[in-house]
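Weekly puzzle thread! Below is a chain. First person to post its structure in token form gets bragging rights.
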Amino acid sequence: MNQPTLRSFKRKIFLLGLFKIPMIWFVKPRLIEINEERVVVKIRLRRRTKNHLNSMYFGALSVGADIAAGIFAFYFAEILGKRVSFAFKGIQGEFLKRAESDVTFVCDEGGLVKEAMKTSLDKGERINQAVKVFALNESKEEVAVFSMTVSVKVLD
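Winning reply:
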């Protein structure tokens, strides 16, 4: 079992944005923390991420939620030494207030993704798991809450 590092996952996000998902590269999310329970991602409010109201565009907010929930699948795949087929099956977002500053995305439900991956490995099936992602402004106020349905299948 490999123990992934923050640095290696920062690089993976950069490469994912550069070669596979250009929107990630465009928004330039910054991985702050990653472990078995928690992921923290930050997106700066700047010209690329602003809307016409000078708050963060909902597309940029969705990218942050995507990374915060989705990176767990790759994290646990690396720990297990397995490949994973990963996608989002659903997303629900509740936008509570305008995000007029940098936004930090926090997902504390790594245990749920880990269990989904173990179940997928045992059953050989695709497993869906809903996880919550909270978007916080610089004052630590919630600006949005996302429910992301992560769909994983462990290969090999």
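Puzzle host: Confirmed. Bonus trivia for everyone else. Residues 58-80 form the longest helix (23 residues).
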